[in-house]
């Protein structure tokens, strides 16, 4: 093996004159040659080649990244500047995530609708004072802390400290967070929210009057329930439009 390597090493190159070949052989022969194990395998050579390739690739990647500033790498890309090869911007990605989790935002609205349906049955013409009280509790629960709370309650304390307690407001805030304040879809949903809160407030007032006076016009009670249901439907529609779902 050593003699073979020596023969390979002393092959004259173009930069050495032919007459100096003997001197070159003497110089090369005097250099200690590394001993190579006779049992070296192709697998080891392949592994070393792979490590070398990875090392070269890593250095090339670092060199490439060094051409960009840290800001260019970390700052999110605006959707309008996103590549047109199927890579969407962060805003589009968030929209898709909101669509996937839309059921969690719509669920409280659906639950409120069911509680309103139960409250209607308690507020029938033959309702007892206990039934009317049960209807009031269901309406307050369906209102999701969006009507004036009772004095001294935890909700009242939270409102005084500036905490947003109205679930419907939080739902709309989440659903429309990616829309501009001037967006017609967001504006319409905000109007639907205001109308919903007003409808719940009026319905609660009617039930309070009914609890104090059983002779209250029951038609007014039915109308208040119908108006609140319509307002809830419109609000759900507005939230869905903000989320971009049907």
TrEMBL record:
GO terms for cellular component: chloroplast. It comes from the Eukaryota. This is Uncharacterized protein.
């Amino acid at each position: 093996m050593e003699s073979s390597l020596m023969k390979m090493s002393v092959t004259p190159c173009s930069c050495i004159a032919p007459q100096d070949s003997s001197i070159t052989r003497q110089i090369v022969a005097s250099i200690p040659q590394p001993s190579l194990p006779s049992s070296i395998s192709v697998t080891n050579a392949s592994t070393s080649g792979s490590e070398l390739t990875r090392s070269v690739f890593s250095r090339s990647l670092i060199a490439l990244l060094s051409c960009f500033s840290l800001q260019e790498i970390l700052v999110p890309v605006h959707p309008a500047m996103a590549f047109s090869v199927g890579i969407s911007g962060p805003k589009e990605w968030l929209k898709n995530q909101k669509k996937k989790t839309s059921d969690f935002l719509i669920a409280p609205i659906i639950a409120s609708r069911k509680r309103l349906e139960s409250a209607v049955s308690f507020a029938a013409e033959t309702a007892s004072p206990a039934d009317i009280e049960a209807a009031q509790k269901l309406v307050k629960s369906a209102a999701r802390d969006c009507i004036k709370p009772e004095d001294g309650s935890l909700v009242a304390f939270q409102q005084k400290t500036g905490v947003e307690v109205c679930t419907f407001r939080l739902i709309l805030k989440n659903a429309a967070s990616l829309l501009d304040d001037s967006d017609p879809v967001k504006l319409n949903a905000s109007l639907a929210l205001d109308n919903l809160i007003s409808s719940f407030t009026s319905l609660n007032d009617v039930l309070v009057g009914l609890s104090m006076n059983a002779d209250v016009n029951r038609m007014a009670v039915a109308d208040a329930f119908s108006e609140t249901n319509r307002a809830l439907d419109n609000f759900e529609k507005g939230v869905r439009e903000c989320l971009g779902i049907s």
